[in-house]
Amino acid sequence: MAKDVNFKGVFPILVTPFDDKEVVDLESFVRVVRFMAEIGVDGVTILGVLGESNRMVDSEREELIMAAVAAADGRIPIVVGTSHKGTQATIYLSLMAESLGAAAVMVTPSKEAVPDEERIFEYFRKVAEGITIPIVLQDHPGSTEVHMSGPLILRIVREIPRIACIKQEAPPTPTKVAALISGMVDRRVPVLTGLGALYGMFDLERGSDGYMTGFAFPEALIAMAKAVRAGRREDAWELYRRFLPLIVFEQQPGIAIRKEIYRLRGLLRSNRVRHPGAQLSASAGEQLRSVMARVLPGVDITRPLEL
Amino acid sequence: MAKDVNFKGVFPILVTPFDDKEVVDLESFVRVVRFMAEIGVDGVTILGVLGESNRMVDSEREELIMAAVAAADGRIPIVVGTSHKGTQATIYLSLMAESLGAAAVMVTPSKEAVPDEERIFEYFRKVAEGITIPIVLQDHPGSTEVHMSGPLILRIVREIPRIACIKQEAPPTPTKVAALISGMVDRRVPVLTGLGALYGMFDLERGSDGYMTGFAFPEALIAMAKAVRAGRREDAWELYRRFLPLIVFEQQPGIAIRKEIYRLRGLLRSNRVRHPGAQLSASAGEQLRSVMARVLPGVDITRPLEL
Amino acid sequence: MAKDVNFKGVFPILVTPFDDKEVVDLESFVRVVRFMAEIGVDGVTILGVLGESNRMVDSEREELIMAAVAAADGRIPIVVGTSHKGTQATIYLSLMAESLGAAAVMVTPSKEAVPDEERIFEYFRKVAEGITIPIVLQDHPGSTEVHMSGPLILRIVREIPRIACIKQEAPPTPTKVAALISGMVDRRVPVLTGLGALYGMFDLERGSDGYMTGFAFPEALIAMAKAVRAGRREDAWELYRRFLPLIVFEQQPGIAIRKEIYRLRGLLRSNRVRHPGAQLSASAGEQLRSVMARVLPGVDITRPLEL
Amino acid sequence: MAKDVNFKGVFPILVTPFDDKEVVDLESFVRVVRFMAEIGVDGVTILGVLGESNRMVDSEREELIMAAVAAADGRIPIVVGTSHKGTQATIYLSLMAESLGAAAVMVTPSKEAVPDEERIFEYFRKVAEGITIPIVLQDHPGSTEVHMSGPLILRIVREIPRIACIKQEAPPTPTKVAALISGMVDRRVPVLTGLGALYGMFDLERGSDGYMTGFAFPEALIAMAKAVRAGRREDAWELYRRFLPLIVFEQQPGIAIRKEIYRLRGLLRSNRVRHPGAQLSASAGEQLRSVMARVLPGVDITRPLEL
Questions:
Q1: Cβ–Cβ contact D200 with A under 8 A
Q2: What are the residue boundaries of the structural domains of chain C, listed by start?
Q3: Most A CBs within 10 Å, among D168, D175, D177, D241, to test the A interface
Q4: Sign of the CA dihedral with D53 first, then D56, D57, and D59 last
Q5: Structurally, what CATH architecture does the domain formed by C9-241 represent?
Q6: ipTM computed for the complex
């Protein structure tokens, strides 16, 4: 059974690997989960936007959850993205995750029907009542087109105890992170940084508790988060500065660049993205290798980075 | 096995009935399908926008398709909405429909990833290659936010033989219907009217071939389409004028009004809409009964209308 | 100086006439304003969405306001649409209208920057503080993509005395009209129906106070509103039923159909719409004449309708 | 009269300064223009998104153009953003800019009416026919929600000689820059980087010709562009790496951070943003000073940077 998760630290959002025919490649997926457990992440999140969850059918979701839980083998908690336009369907997918051993679910609201603060609150309340594992509230207007105000998020956290974490990715994030943290007077839940870690250092400086994002070198995020926690802020900045060109390049819209890094790291057999997502352009692939050569010169990226 | 469908006439889009706990109510669903077969529709479409397909999980889709096919019992073809943001997932859902006995699928593109005429074309091409039953191309920017130009739709029809019908609901529809029909010089497929039949007469006058929409008195649409086909245009107009207040009232955004009519017709046990969709307001329910009393005074709506 | 306006009755939204080179045709505009005064409307609104205000420069706005005020010559109040993405600019345009003799302004919020209930409230508050004439609050998500909740509108009406009227066009409108009217316990302002009068009868039945919309036969709206006020509900319904096919046809997206009706009524020299708006298609023009022949057989539409 | 502009190099997009009452502060604006001329930019662009052009009335536009042209005094060309939802209005604003001495205009399409490749093409063609100075085509879906395909942009450049430059800001930009440059076989116009220079180095590596963006230390962009042109790629990378934390922080959504940097540089009297834009939060202001201290330790930023 899933134990309580401490949502501090680094929770990589995982890609969903496909073969060249866009069929789920479970072998690569298992390899990625195991790799994450080995490098010391605090958990992983599957079936998020980066995991192309909006291009998956339910039976694929099921096999991915099972594979992740089995591969983690209790070493790290598995968080599962279960957002759906229908509230009942979100509950259904969340219960499926729960029953298969997920430690938590990640949920974000949809702009349909008409967005309404009360309706968004109800959505979270209903999902919370329908399951027994914790919920990560994802605030990501870039994919949802739903703009949750600070007061709305604070109310959800205050009134729904099952909300265990906020994944904050509504830029400008440092300002929102600061506002949320100062607003959580009754009940403080961890706030994690997303958006490919682009604003990572700035969010950490405002009090965020780590990362839940897809940057394909989580070792760097672990090192940064640890440095900040240990009060070694200069070291954290040093890491941020070093990796920033790669962070910027990688977080461009689309998923192919990240998949290519995972492939270059020896974890995926293919960088294939499901249609209608864009595949890696030759131009982008070449430029990726060039920027990696600058940031990680002479480093064997198929092995965990030592930072 | 599904025989070829002639997409002329009236194909009601069906609601998905739920009980008061939002659980699928198959018994009511079967009743609706049988009712449609009895009143002489040319087919029915399930799991469209009106069917709240975006709030269903895959196993529910499966049971609804099975129930519809069984209830139709070969008397009318079942068309299944299978649109999904991922192309592979659309194929998967379409194959599921095909294997369960659906006669055709209805497909509309998604605005993610970035809309692009070429990508939309590819989407339809790939789906067409993945299945063996006909495709109804749905053009409904109101739900998809994808604006397909006339030339794009004509190209899709011309180059993808599996496209067997256009469900046209991008207003102003009469103008687009006329443009599509005059543009289909090599290959003419039927064009059906949607949008709750709001522009029904105007589309028919421009050459449309019938209706694929959710108006809860399909008998009126059948009578109108027949009248136009028989050259009795005044009769068609008479019907349009008579039912228009109800058509206007019913096609307001939201689904609850339609479900309430089905309930009042004795077909559904509940008018429940799945969260976060809006339930019927007391005000709207009262007004609905009032407008029905005007349009159908003294008529027993639990029985097929005789028009 | 502008006297207080009583926002009950019928306030047609006027088109902005152009010649065939898209230059403002003031002569036709003056003719339209005078025609409205003659048929007994309670006021007119210029520079709304229908007036293509989003395609006008400020100097054109100025000459249109001057021309309308002069043509009205004190017989009817002129309401001016002054919405702008910037609050200061809305105030500037509103002050211009005020100084030129407008009786009120019509204002709707913009979705930029990020929509936020507090920011929308502030927008109305600031505009109200910057001017001295009344404000019509327009609730039209179809053009603004801003969804104002009922409680937000009620708060704006309650706290900002300069708000003198609500133009309600967020469907389902009858439900929202009913909710607003029952919610205005402290301060009740008139609620007017928009959206081309599509839901006109239904809104009136829920308590709306008339029309502020662009239907090109305002005589019908005047007659309907009068009939409802006089308790002659059946007469109102008779009119609604009679005109509904034309209302439905006319309110299709785009402006060209309305301009063509005005042209056929002898008020405009051209039905030209400014680029990139769509011009009247030959198909739509033909169909318009056909539906008018049905609704108004043998009627000389260049003269005020007698209803 | 405006001479032909060579759109290579660095063209800062300027802010529009306001005083604390949101009134245009021309004195500060003149100071900014002169500062830019002194540090050796190749031109400046006013009244872009960053210039809050969507919150300005026409008379303010006029005075800003006059002030910029006067302040530049022939030393640098002034490019003026003149996008408007109406094509005629874009022409009007462009002619105003032209008559006041602007060297070029910057134009981007609007998503209204319904986006359509042909309509976007016509928009540019009509604007080009209406004026005699060059046009910078801006591709910025982030503000316009219009996604122009590569083939569409190439067609516009090929068929409309007045298009003199592409401001490319549809991420992933390096891929699109590469595609555009390889596609411009008949006629090659410069491609400039926007988006706050976030992808600056990557775009330059793919062949872009410089910057047209609002990063508040244009000296860094000038130095980077020069280094790339001179083949000193390592130097360019060194600069990119150094400034990247500031670039990332500054390009967060909103304008207040940039205005604050200009204020700290002694160029603006106030960092005020026009309502409903967000003002600088105390938190963001503090963090900005901290990141500037890291990137530019001990540097007097009120003087041109020497890099």
A1: no
A2: 9-241
A3: D175
A4: negative
A5: Alpha-Beta Barrel (3.20)
A6: 0.96
